[in-house]
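Would you mind writing out a protein's amino acid sequence and the numbers that encode its backbone to help me picture the idea?
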Amino acid sequence: MNSVRWLMGVFVWALTALVSTELTTSRAAEVAGLDDYVKLKDSSYSWKLSKKTDVPLLGTMHEMDLVSQTWQGLNWTHKLVIYDGTSGSVKPKTMLLMNTGGAPSTGNNYIGFTLAKKVGAPIAVLYGIPNQPLYDGKKEDALIAETMVRYLEGGGKDGSWPLLFPMVKSVVRSFDALGAYTEKEWGAKVDSFVLTGASKRGWTTWLTAAVEPRVKGFAPMVIDVLNMKPQMDHQLVTLGAFSQMIHDYTERKLLPMPEGDLALKLWKMVDPYSYRDRYKQPKLIINGANDPYWTVDALNLYWDEIPGPKWVEIVANAGHNLSPLTREGKQTEPTIALDAVAAFTRRIAAGSSLPTVTWKQSFAEGAGIVDVVASEDVKVARVWQACSETRDFRKSRWEMTELKGGPREFRRKVEPCEGKNTAYYVEVEFADKTGANFRLATQIRVIDSKGIELRPKAVASK
């Protein structure tokens, strides 16, 4: 009798394992790309309010526990926090969501409330993008690279492997949770979002905007790498090698990009440039002029191909954290970036847009000439200029000169640095109706010591 029970137990175990394997294989086969993965049904999704906290002098935190999905057998869990500094008096239909890593902390909560105050409405922050560490303690780019390698080693049979896919789905699920919670808590459902995030969370922001219609505007930060193959080629020409900041991909032989259709398919799936025709929403790109990850003129390899409406802000003397350095090397707050995101959010929520900033670049008499026209009065216009012996400006100091003219039209002749290459751009600052200022910029151009433009090879013929 015991042997019969034992045999039945083995049979049930084997059957369960078989069904589980078939289900996993079937689900993997359903995923041919980002759209498929996001649409794939997942019964593990859930959310609940864990606590509601009144923070003296700041406002109220609504903290939720979110299970966004099961990915590769792992439940992805997140903290999803609404920061409300309005005492509940403002109930937005459109909410700013920032996706980020880590978890709520004293510092992160302060940033959340600060951003909410700048926006003038509750905002949300989704933490735990991505869930990490995983696979022997890997985090961030090392973890993304690991999942790319696993996709390639599996011959592409499991299309859910690229880590950016569950990162995007986490954001989509947070939209679902925020809509359900605000409808229950406030009696007014948030049904659209302005999405932002930095670095690989900026990468996630681009990809989410490509597949999620509730994104009414988005502001990706410091992910200046769209059109990835030309970008990597441009790094080799400009910097002489790939940036050390992306060593996780070079060490795993993902850069230079491997030959073959499968590798090409992988990079195409995760490159926001592949989805460029979908980006009809307003978008604000925010970069640091000294970001060590990217070339100074990386934006020029994709800007013209991204449909409008679109804006850019470039923070001078700031790296990947968007915190400008003083001349003495002291790091300041990322206020310029936060002010831009807040102004962008306010305009989108109000059904309006940021002022247009158009510019024309020309080159004559050994200098660069830039003409700028804005659709609203400009408070201050500046030209930022940096010098470098090479085409690598990552460690260069940017100097500012205020422009005369206005209030909406400005022209500047930029003389090249003596015996050096010159990078420059114009930044215009506006005063919003709320009394807060925000800045927008032109693209960066690079000229040599004779005033001849040095353009990325991929756009040199345009």
Notes: The two ends are 82 Å apart (CA to CA). The first strand starts at residue 46 and ends at 55. The mean pLDDT is 92. Residues 224 and 298 are 6 Å apart (CA to CA).
